Amino acid sequence: MEWANDKSKGGVLAHLERLETQMSRSCKNLEDPPRETAESDIGTKIRKLRCLRDKLRAEVKQRQARIKASTANAELDQTLEISEQEAVGGKEENMKAILQAYRFTGLSGKRTSRGVCVCISTAFEGNLLDSYFVDLVIQKPLRIHHHSVPVFIPLEEISAKYLQTNIQHFLFCLCEYLNAYAGRKYQADQLQRDFAAFLAGPLQRNSLCNLLSFTYKVEPQSRSFPFCARLLYKDLTTTLPTDVTITYQGTDTSSTSWEEQRASHENLFFTKPLHQVFTSFARNGERLDMSLVS
Amino acid sequence: MDETVAEFIKRTILKIPMTEMMTILKAWDFLPENQLQTVNFRQRKESLVQDLVLLCENKRASLRDAALLDIIYTQFHQHQKVWDVFQMSKEPGEDVDLFDMEQFKSSFEKILRRALKNVTVSFRDAEENAVWIRIAWGTQYRKPNQYKPVFVVYYSQTPYVFTSFCHLKSNTPLLSQALTVASNHHKIVKMDLRSRYLDSLKAIVFKQYNQKFETHNSTMPLQENLELDMHMDSRIIHENRIEKERVQRVTQETFGDYPQPRLEFAQYKLETKFKSDFHGGILAERKEPLRCLIKFSSPHLLEALKSLAPAGIADAPLSPLLTCIPNKGMNYFKIRDK
To answer: Would you indicate the residue range of the signal peptide (chain B) (predicted)?
Structure first.
């Protein structure tokens, strides 16, 4: 094997040199252009992103500002709403109080799902007494669903007469009966409670308080109970008796003053409520006492 | 003191439970406080009773006192008797009822004694202008039987009278007559209403069982109960919520919100012809009506009926034959073909 010629020798070396320069040239070619483009590319990207970031930041700030402004408005609205509500609520309370106070007129009512619930508040001499209810169903025919009227008040009679034809009259009639009953009951209760010392034994009464029977005295210090009273209230719409019978059952038949007293008592019971009659007895007794002392 | 009276007092006191002994004796007010204090209430009941009977003997207790004790015992144990209700009526357009309790008592007793010499009548005034009457019936030849008395409760100026169930039906007409005449009424009719619970009977006939009224003073409690139940656990879905609410609403409309009066039974006597779609059945050809008796019993019938539809056992609304009981004031019915 002989190397070819010098050309070849020079050829091999030259060939190697040529290859070397080729290689280094191709390397250069490979590296330089990407580095340049990459740099410029990244740069522009960065610049673009920075731009975007700034834009977004600005938008966020704007939106936040807008929200703050609107919440401030909303709060303002809310406080306005609240104070309006308070005003309405205050009015509502006021209305409720007025509706509750209607009771004091003696006849009030409240709408129900079926009709109306009427409340009759009884009173006597400025004292508010028991309330009675009648729950009416508004239908044809008008009917009473349930009620709290005592069984001895003639509710059936009154409703048979007036409920269908004249409901106003029905209510006023019932009011009359209930108020009269409440008044009579009040007098009897007062007598039993405050003037028991003037009575011999318990007060005889009945459910309607329209028949009262008792034995009494007028002088607190006296030991005997010389008078017997029997009060009849034949008119159930009144609080004063229609019949008064006073009998003297004392032993002292000589003095005519007993007859005078008896007659004056009768008159008193006819014209004044029971407890007032006894208050005047008590006062007279005190006057007597005072006269004895002085 | 009469032997029979002593025995009667002894037996009455023996019935009283130890927990109520002092209360009842105080209500009787026959043995004074200081005497009662000398008695040892911790001893055995029999010996206690002997001591008390001895005290009664010393104080010469009469039949009247013994009868009063019997009334008080019964007032404390009303549910031991079964009570019937009678309704009295007046002629229309009559004068105002001026009821005098003393007149009523004397008139009542007089009417009984005129018809029957052997009778014991005792009275005890009660609250709300009512009177409890105890009647021990005898016959023409026999002394009154103190162990089978009849009790009558009457609220003045009302048309209703409550009587304890009496085995001796023969005396009922006399009792009815005495009640009507003494209370200024004309007619008396027995109602189809019976129960052990006197206050429930009173609530029914006086129409006092529903005392809930809407006023401006009270706030109506909304129907929150059902809704609360429904929403308690959100994992549970009530598929039939609408139906449940409907049932609840219908039940509330029929029975109301108030505690029901207490009855133990409702009885329906049927006398109806058998109605059948099948022709030629054994019962279809029957000309006579079928007679049968249906009785609903419960410790508290109306509350039980009220809970039927919400519990899903019956459809709502319930049959009006069941729901009309307090409104009509009846708990035994006769149903015939029209």
So the answer is: none
